[in-house]
Amino acid sequence: MFYWVVKAVLAPILRVLFRPWAQGAEYVPRTGPAILASNHLSFSDHFFAPLPLPRKVVFLAKSEYFTGRGIKGLFSKAFFSGVGQIPVDRSGGEASERALATGLRVLASGQLLGIYPEGTRTPDGRLFRGKTGVARLALEARVPVIPCAMIGGFEFQPPGRITPHFKIRPGVKFGKPLDFSRYYGLEGDGLVLRAVTDEIIYEIMKLSGQEYVDEYAAQHKAKKHAEKRAHKHDAAAKGGSGRVEGAVAEGAVGEGAALPEGAALAGDTSAGGAEDSAADPPGSRTAEAVSSPEFVNGSALTGAEGTDAGIGSALTGAEGTNAGVAGIQASGSTSDAASTSADADRADPESDETPAAAKASDASSAG
Questions:
Q1: How far is CA 80 from CA 32, 119, 230, 278, in A?
Q2: Taking a C-beta distance cutoff of 8 angstroms, is the pair 8, 87 a contact?
Q3: Of 145, 159, 284, the residue nearest 204 (C-alpha)
Q4: What angle do CA 346, 351, 353 make, to 5 degrees?
Q5: Which fold has domain 2-213?
Q6: Whose CA is closest to 141, among 185, 193, 177, 182?
Q7: Tens digits of per-residue pLDDT, 276-311?
Q8: Measured between alpha carbons, how far is 281 from 50 in angstroms, rounded to an integer?
Q9: Does residue 338 surpass a pLDDT of 50?
Q10: Model-level pTM greater than 0.70?
């Protein structure tokens, strides 16, 4: 009941503010179980996909919408529960099986089930590889699949943006129902599940006009996140060595003075830190951390958390370098005074041994 109240209140407001448009709504059956398989561009998809349909759409929503704390968490839980969203755990394994079982119950009750085959929102507006959960649902429940394409949603509300762009008109296209009765009874065949999923994604691609990427969106996000963290680590390491070199050039470190532990001159291959850097360049552990995901029942298991842990440990070494630089700068005046009274010709900075930079430990955790 609350679903229709919310829709009756929101529909006129959304139509006036954003002027959404729709095509092919007649392809969605008015009664009976069916799967609405859509691309996922933004949070607003939950509102604009069901808007032109005269029947209720039940989406499998991520459990985070129902577990928030405080007033915001209570409001989120009440809203998504009221509009018929069902929380699912996307951690994979047994959680994926429970999500599939929930979807089968929705279809068994004769309802229209909304699902995003990509598993998550697109990170860059492109269409990513679909997970086979949608195929299992279609074959086990023996229901048609209606391809659905959200249009303009990524520009309307890009990732991380709360307020939408009012100049963008979001739209939705519905395609003709896909019949997979030829595969009934073969839901345990992995090749069949992949073929059905790819056919669904292909129809969505034709409707949306998106560029297709043969990679899981979750895996792509994890790799990009790891690369970003690796670049930050690399920049921090270069910045630290650059400050040490500048301090030596400006006389902050007197001739013949030993560098504090953890600091190495840029290009000094005799230092242990430089050797470690050459043997283990920034980002090498990142490439190992982002391994090819294993898919358990259509759920991607990525190593993003382990990657973050490894990079976080690597950053400890960069922080140690910065701390060493701070010590050099703080003792600059003392070194200058000492070098002024000493005979500069007797000092040979190249003969001083520079303590090796401490190598960061490679922490890892299960993804």
A1: 23, 18, 37, 52
A2: no
A3: 145
A4: 130
A5: Glycerol-3-phosphate (1)-acyltransferase (3.40.1130)
A6: 185
A7: 433 344 444 433 333 343 333 433 333 334 434 333
A8: 50
A9: no
A10: no
